[in-house]
Amino acid sequence: METSKNYTLITGATSGIGYELAKLFAEDGHNLILIARSLDDLEKVGAELSRYGVDVITISKDLFDRQAPLEIYDEIRLQDIAVNILVNDAGQGVYGEFIETDLQKELDIVQLNISACIALTKMFLRDMVLKGEGKILNLSSIAGKIPGPYQAVYHGTKAFVHFFSEAVRSEVKGSGVTITSLLPGATDTDFFNKAEMQASKIVQEGEMADPAEVAKDGYDALMAGKDMVISGFKNKMQVAMGNITPDSAITDKMGETQAPVDKKND
């Protein structure tokens, strides 16, 4: 596909880590394709980032819709645009005991966190491999390394994203394309509000990371071609301890951290 410009495509680009990543790319002169649901938010962020002198294309799509990734890809191909960096940032969680949470919300989370990531990665990765160059950053989480009571489905989706990224990275080794998995911990974004998780101990008593710092860790790792990066020293230690602690013990510990503040220990 012959094009005059390369673009970085970022999902979930209007807030949180996705927004901070978009700023870093714009500051370094990358043309951008920003994907989010809210057209108003996209127009606001697009106008802001255009001031860096880069081309910014905004596409309003709801990645809860199974067809949305295919529509995004087709729309970009029709504009004869090459995506040389893909950032799968969009993701949400559902909070509560699994037997009580809403099934449809959880299936929607699987669509957003897993299916959309698979679809976008497959379509753009094929083009990158044909060109012999490209980079993909997938937003996992330390949640993908530790089972998470009260967020059982979310932790499961992030485990998928991380191991999916590592597996496909191995398959395309030597192609000129790298895939990087970013694993932040609890970060000061709108995630906890959307997940209706304000009553949890991790929100009320925990220490949140700065999304700008998380984004910088991910950006640097992506550009260096690393396979993964755990953002934050405390999170690195938590994952390291999880690697040597029995699953049942580390799961119970995470359950205590994520439980509602008024829940009594059994």
TrEMBL record:
Any one GO CC term of this protein is: membrane
Does the record bear Oxidoreductase in its keywords?
yes
Signal peptide span per the entry?
none
GO terms for MF: oxidoreductase activity
Query: Looking at the Swiss-Prot or TrEMBL record, what is one Pfam family this protein matches?
Result: adh_short
Q: What UniProt keywords apply to this chain's record, in alphabetical order? A: Oxidoreductase
What family does the database annotate? Belongs to the short-chain dehydrogenases/reductases (SDR) family.
Q: What is this protein called?
A: Short-chain dehydrogenase
